[in-house]
Amino acid sequence: MFSLKTPLIIHQIWSGIAEPLPKKFEILSKTWKYDYPDWRYEFWDNNRMNSFVRESFPQYWKNYKQFPYNIQKWDAIRYLILKKIGGMYVDFDYESIKPLDELIQNKTCCFSQEPTAHSSTLPPDTNFTFNNALMLSIPNHPFMDKIIEKVFSDENVAQKYDSKALTVIKTTGPYIINQIYKSLIEEESSQIFLIPAKFVSPFSVQQSQATRKNIITNELESCLKDAYAVHYYLGSWLQEKEKLI
Predict the structure, then answer these.
(1) Does the pLDDT of residue 240 top 60, yes or no?
(2) Which of 67, 93, 100, 200 could connect to 112 by a Cys-Cys bridge, CB 3.0–4.6 Å?
């Protein structure tokens, strides 16, 4: 029996404003429901997200609405959800292989690390070692407070870079939370568990693309030997046509 400090809740976000939840994501979502039968499952659509911010974090509602891209809102709200409710947030392009319980026992805040192969493909000013696609937290964790304070600041909300991808990564996505993490003192960072990539991100983007083409090699199979979950890096937000919400 494992001792878990985070609430037994799984959160997933799909706004539904551009299209209903695609079948491929519905299938991947079922792997989490199957592997975590004792966890409560919470689905967040656009109406629920808007209501949640207005009711639970009215001080951030104005800046939440002012993010230029929808994905920034959906990045930002996951930090608010974990602060208020706690549990595990997981992107829809993630597959559960087996429960994470033994990895996360006695942990209060966890993030999934990126494959090392990615560090050589990112520009130096956007490099990050962990992401926000799979996160766990107790309510009111100090690191979530620091993320929220920075992400929802007037200065950050107003930032815009040369592309949508850069704007998202640097203002609400992995880059900004990595920068906040690097600013922590040792006592603070020791309270955050970065889950090794071999457990939760065993494939690089290129390897993930190969698996989706049904390419099977010894290399790809060996990547899965320690895996508890697989991130497929589908990046649907990059192709999404923006709609006002």
Answers:
(1) no
(2) 200
The tokens of 18 are what?
């551009």
236 falls in which pLDDT band (50, 70, 90)? low
Q: Is the pLDDT of residue 217 over 90?
A: no
Determine contact, residues 132/111, Cβ cutoff 8 Å: yes
Q: CA-based angle 47:24:200, to the nearest 5?
A: 90
Q: Name the 3-class secondary structure at 159.
A: coil
Cα pseudo-dihedral 35, 39, 40, 43, rounded to 10? -40
Letter for the amino acid at 156? N
105, 2 in Cβ contact below 8 A? yes
**Nearest CA to 44 among 91, 83, 8, 100?**
91
What's the pLDDT score for residue 121? 64
Cα atoms in the Cβ-side hemisphere of radius 13 Å centred on 158: 3
Q: In 64-195, which ranges are E strands?
A: 87-90, 94-96, 109-113, 130-137, 193-195
Considering Cα of 101, then 107, then 110, then 116, what sign does the dihedral take? Answer: negative
The pLDDT, as a whole number, for residue 241 is 53
Q: Model's pTM, two decimal places?
A: 0.92
Give 81's Cβ-side CA count (13 Å radius).
26
Provide the token pair at 87.
């549990």
Instruction: Tell me the torsion sign for CA atoms 103, 231, 70, 150.
Output: positive
- The arrangement of strands across the sheet holding 9-13 comes to 40-44, 9-13, 87-90, 130-137, 109-113, 193-195
Q: Are strands 9-13 and 109-113 parallel, antiparallel or unpaired?
A: unpaired
In the chain the beta strands, taken as DSSP E runs, fall at 9-13, 40-44, 87-90, 94-96, 109-113, 130-137, 193-195, 229-231
